[in-house]
Write a structure and sequence with these properties.
Blueprint (H helix, E strand, L loop, with lengths): L2 E2 L2 H8 L13 H14 L7 E2 L3 H8 L3 H13 L3 E4 L3 E4 L5 E3 L5 E3 L6 E3 L9 H12 L15 H13 L9 E4 L2 H12 L5 E6 L3 H9 L3 E6 L8 H11 L3 E4 L13 H14 L2 E5 L25 E6 L11 E4 L2 H11 L8 H12 L1 H26 L4 E2 L7 E5 L5 H9 L3 E5 L12 E5 L4 H20 L13
Parallel strand pairs: 1-2, 7-17, 9-10, 9-11, 11-12, 12-13
Antiparallel strand pairs: 3-4, 5-6, 8-14, 13-14, 15-16, 16-18, 17-18
Helix pairs in contact: 1-3, 2-4, 2-14, 3-4, 5-12, 6-12, 7-8, 7-11, 9-10, 13-15, 14-15
Length: about 475
């Protein structure tokens, strides 16, 4: 078991679980059970966690205990809850589910789903030739054990050269290769954050970063991003000075999920403020290569670092392919060695063959990334056009890069919309996944990584569902698929 959620905590996560006019035609207990299933589906409520007692949840929601009792009974019938008399009830999912690409659960029969929950592209055509070339390079490594905790030298040099080309002189000794960007973040947290340490993050932010911080039992404070402008400089710097966190996790390049780009002057001020209060900065550069509309690259945040306060992480998943589990950390050489010592107790090293594939892809980076930018610009514009036509009430700030739109909806219906969209074959990532305690119900992340025709089709289905949410009709309940 992973712990217990209290009644007030679950009430915050549930939010406006029965506030939609269309849903009031279903019994309250069915709406409550459906909302709990939705929290399980998108990962906001963990598996194996003990739910509050019926009485406690009824008091927190200010509803009758009979309603909660009926909701719990329905959750047991659908396989989402296990109960034992005198011991309580624990969350679970039915057996006909599998682990999806993000580590969440999804039904076995969801292969034809239009998945707008995953913000990642299919592999580029150059991947096959890079893989063939990598196999030709492999024999020179076969006489050794194959363990390279910091990564093979060719790849570390290639990544270092990319940083140098961006105006940040870097040596191979400052690079550690990891098994993806999420792995890089996990290792940095293991090294730099004691359990219960304080961390400042943006809101909204990357859900898997929040999960990693929860795994360290971090005390999280947030800086809210403005929907249209992003970071408010005085508020961000004030948060650093007031909370004095051990770490701050920021995504300055085409922020996930909002797509905002942090201005260069603010980057410099953030580094100075972090040094003044003793905060280390984890800078996630996952989307740094994916600029559009002629947006000029800005100096890396680490450019302004003179005191080894900035640790940069990045990887191959967004510009190249998520199936190539290659990421990296850029830090001072002593920090890289300490990270390597931590890593030996986790996974030893990244696969040599994957690293060799990455070397060849990075050698062709200019052509691959240029193609990606053109592809993403076309798909972004198709998504924007479909939203303007079918859902004109939604507000969207056009991103100058990255792979996602952050849409402000016409009501606090994000979670309900995501649950309903499953019925018509569209998977969504509701706004609350990107924040804390059930907030951001008025927002929805929409990646533009699918083909343009699929995006237009998905928006058409979403628009029909949005219409139905307000106009009722008998709500149908089914085992929800898990968004990714």
């Amino acid at each position: 078991m992973t712990g217990q959620v209290r009644g007030v905590q679950l009430a915050r996560l549930l939010g406006q679980w029965h506030a939609l006019p269309g849903r009031r035609r279903s019994p309250d207990y069915a709406a409550l059970a459906g909302s709990v299933r939705g929290l399980l589906a998108d990962g906001r409520l963990p598996l194996g966690v003990r739910l509050p007692s019926e009485r406690e949840l009824a008091e927190a929601l200010r509803i009758s205990r009979t309603t909660v009792t009926a909701a719990y009974r329905q959750l047991r019938e659908t396989g989402h809850l296990a109960s034992r008399r005198g011991a309580g009830s624990w969350t679970m999912l039915p057996g006909n589910h599998r682990v999806a690409s993000t580590g969440l659960w999804t039904p076995l029969d969801d292969r034809d789903m239009l998945d707008l929950g995953v913000a990642a592209l299919a592999a580029p055509p150059q991947l096959l030739s890079a893989a063939r070339a990598a196999t030709e390079d492999l024999p020179r490594y076969l006489s050794g054990a194959g363990y390279h905790p910091t990564g093979i030298i060719e790849l570390r040099e290639a990544v270092a050269e990319a940083y140098t080309a961006r105006g940040l002189p870097t040596s191979a000794d400052q690079i550690m290769v990891t098994s993806g960007t999420q792995h890089a973040l996990d290792l940095v947290l293991r090294l730099a954050l004691a359990p219960g340490g304080s961390v400042l993050v943006e809101s909204p932010t990357y859900p898997n970063a929040l999960a990693a911080l929860a795994g360290r039992r971090a005390r999280i404070s947030t800086h809210g991003l403005a929907a249209d402008t992003g970071w408010e400089p005085d508020l961000l710097l004030g948060s650093l000075r007031q909370t004095r966190p051990k770490l701050a996790y920021l995504i300055p390049e085409f922020q996930n999920p909002t797509g905002h780009l942090m201005p260069a002057p603010l980057r410099e001020r953030v580094v100075a403020a972090a040094h003044a209060v003793g905060t280390d900065l984890i800078i996630d550069e996952s989307f740094v290569d994916l600029s559009m509309d002629g947006t000029e690259p800005l100096p890396p945040v680490a450019t302004y670092d003179r005191h080894s306060r900035v640790i940069s992480i990045g990887g191959m998943s967004k510009p190249y392919w998520g199936g190539l589990r290659i990421g990296w950390v850029r830090a001072s050489a002593p920090q890289v060695q300490r990270l390597a010592a931590v890593r030996v107790g986790v996974d030893m090293a990244s696969p040599v063959l994957d690293q060799l594939v990455a070397v060849h892809l990075l050698a062709d980076a200019e052509a691959i990334v240029a193609d990606r930018r053109v592809q993403l610009a076309v798909q972004r514009d198709a998504l924007l056009g479909a939203l303007a036509h079918r859902l004109p009430e939604w507000r969207v700030t056009v991103p100058r890069g990255g792979v996602t739109l952050w849409a402000e909806l016409d009501g606090p219906v994000s979670s309900a919309l995501a649950r309903a969209a499953e019925e018509v074959g569209v998977r969504l990532a509701p706004g609350p996944r990107f924040g804390l305690d059930g907030t951001l119900e008025r927002f929805l992340r929409l990646p533009f990584t699918l083909p343009a025709a699929d995006l237009v089709e998905a928006v058409g289905r979403i628009a029909a569902i949005r219409y139905d949410l307000d106009r009722g009709g008998r709500q149908r309940w089914r085992e929800p698929a898990v968004i990714a």
